[in-house]
User: What shape does this take?
Amino acid sequence: MTDSTQQSDQILGAARQSLVTQQEGGTHRPGDSIGKGSAAAKRKNWMNRAKYFAGAVLTILVTASLAGVVLNGIGFTGVMMVALAVMAAAFVFSNYPKVKTPKRADLKQGNPQQMVARTELWLEAQRPALPPAAAKIVDQLGVQLDALGLQLETIDPEHPAMNEVRELVGEYIPETIENYRKIPEHLRKEDHAGGTADDRLTTSLSKLSSEVERVTRRLAEGALDDLAVKSRYLDYRYGGDDLIAGLTDNSQGSGVPLPDLSAKLEASKQPR
Assistant: This one.
């Protein structure tokens, strides 16, 4: 009888590793978008693929029609060739052109929307090589970059905060991940100087995530102050719930009493 002990140990080991992976944040498919910017870039790429495919199909059909006119029909063989050509076009344009992963030097370039989209695409390309805990923070960074991008749309490109954002997004985040990826994979879990490379990467990304959140909140302070001032003005101009309640109480007798005119009315009715 075949000894299945080794196979059982392998199955149990894989199950334990899967459980640990899920507890640390799970695995991610390469195609998952971490933010709206990268999702929009992928959507645009798919629209281009659809246009190319439609153009290819139109070209195939027009060519087949012309061939049918010239040859007085293309026959069964021609129909099959047209079908194969359409299938080939579908295969090609469902895989190409691929979304181009931005280079690190491009992460600081362009307007806020382009900068956010490029950084998210770059982070997605690095995510499969990161430990689960760090990959989870990368997903969080995608959401934060979307919020940061919205704030950047409303400020002057020459605003001092823009330089800070470009430095944070275009230098510190990619540099941290690139330094980690330079370490051989089999050494990343070994303890060195009081910690592993996986742990240090996760800690560093957590700090960078907190910094992105801080910058976003600082840029939003002006809008928050404007909203608070507007809210106070509306309370003063149109009255809030407390003011309306006060007016209701006054109408029920808490205000100045009205004069009693009933006696004067009766006196005027009597004959003089």
